[in-house]
Amino acid sequence: MMSKNLRAGLIGLGMMGRHHARNLRALEGVDLVAVADPQGDPHGAAPGYEVLPNVEALIEAGLDYCVVAVPTAFHRDVALALVEAGVHTLVEKPLAFDIIEAEEITNAFESKGLVGAVGYIERYNPALQEMRKRIENGQLGDIYQISTRRQGIFPARIADVGVVKDLATHDLDLTAFVSRSNFAQVSAVTTGKSGREYEDMVSIAGRLADGTITNHLVNWLSPFKERVTIVTGEKGALVGDTLTADLTFHANGETVNEWDAIASFRGVSEGDTVRYALNRKEPLRTEHEAFRDAVRGDASNIVTMREGLNTVRAVEAVLDSAAAGRTVAL
């Protein structure tokens, strides 16, 4: 009897690819049938597999879907080869190096009716998955502001981009995710203090299409690691820590104001605070399960290529804003 498991491939066995390999090999309902990387398998991520030289050899193995974990500069060529072969594809973030390439990839997958997704792993953090559910269920009421902080030390593996394309892209994506609204405008300032060609600090002020204001502090020059998302609304605030996968709710308190001069000011006071106990499941595993399910017909929990394209647009707007010293509308 033939196996009904999906046949998966992986191209790219580097720092991120090795984790994809581990998850694909353990994923229920999926067989990892082939891997490829012109540099071989430096981390020993795929023992027992022949490491194929390119995407063409990978396609010849006969795939239902493929995970692309090559450097961003090669995303376009690899993704277009896969779509031409009719292979559903999950591309590591960001979708492409620039807007033109991202549009080309997105349009190709949509026109062929194939499942295309982008690997924004932060979306699958238990804290953010639970945050979005609670926001959708009305726990915060109207959303007023979304603020994120993503700070830490410089990752030596990054050589081809600055902190905006490597890290801030996560914050722009997850902000659109929890709010269900795209960016309408951004105003950003960047600086470079490490002596590299690219920026290593950015501060972004934004506004979403639904009117929510946002703020994002991102750098890789801090001697501590911080990954925090704060969503403030009319009924309180949710604070998600994606390092610990904790989610905390700070409710607005009830106050009686008897001072006529300020009685009309609609402020808030401290209310109850609750930290939720979450099922701390590896985000990458959840991402792989979501894409497997999408290939089978349930695409409710993937980051679509269209969403990935919108994030590339936001990233480019941030860099344009910082370079020109002005607010950029999307």
From TrEMBL:
<dbReference type="InterPro" id="IPR051450">
    <property type="entry name" value="Gfo/Idh/MocA_Oxidoreductases"/>
</dbReference>
<protein>
    <submittedName>
        <fullName>Dehydrogenase</fullName>
    </submittedName>
</protein>
<dbReference type="InterPro" id="IPR000683">
    <property type="entry name" value="Gfo/Idh/MocA-like_OxRdtase_N"/>
</dbReference>
<feature type="domain" description="Gfo/Idh/MocA-like oxidoreductase C-terminal">
    <location>
        <begin position="132"/>
        <end position="330"/>
    </location>
</feature>
<dbReference type="Pfam" id="PF02894">
    <property type="entry name" value="GFO_IDH_MocA_C"/>
</dbReference>
<feature type="domain" description="Gfo/Idh/MocA-like oxidoreductase N-terminal">
    <location>
        <begin position="7"/>
        <end position="120"/>
    </location>
</feature>
<dbReference type="InterPro" id="IPR004104">
    <property type="entry name" value="Gfo/Idh/MocA-like_OxRdtase_C"/>
</dbReference>
<dbReference type="InterPro" id="IPR036291">
    <property type="entry name" value="NAD(P)-bd_dom_sf"/>
</dbReference>
<comment type="similarity">
    <text>Belongs to the Gfo/Idh/MocA family.</text>
</comment>
<dbReference type="Pfam" id="PF01408">
    <property type="entry name" value="GFO_IDH_MocA"/>
</dbReference>
